[in-house]
Amino acid sequence: MPLLPVDADEGFPQSFRLRFGPHVYRVGLYVNADERTVAQGGVLDLLGTGPFLVVVVDREDPDGIVPLVRRKAVRELPCPAGRLRLVFREALVHVRNLNGAGSHGSRVVVEVSA
Prior knowledge:
The protein is mostly beta strands. The protein has one domain. The chain contains one helix and eight strands; from the N terminus they run ββαββββββ. The strands form two sheets. The protein has a four-stranded antiparallel beta sheet with strand order 1-2-4-5, with no helix packed on it. Strands 3, 6, 7 and 8 form a four-stranded antiparallel beta sheet that branches. It is elongated.
């Protein structure tokens, strides 16, 4: 199954365009974590309890942008977004990758299918 082209080293929030089938989608990912959690440092498991990853998907249409989904990512639970289906397998983000780029051991794996 193909993966979303997430580059965790580029940091979060991040967004990118994805051509899948006949459509182009805009995918955005951001982290929701409180200041205390961030201050503790380290790697955050965003598919566990506590801080979490939010996914936003819009479709680009000739008439404009069509919002499809904005929701919390849940491990292994399919996330429908129009004709896309996203499955979050792993979302480990180091606090240094929150609003910052660099190789700090962050890894986000999301499968995409029709």
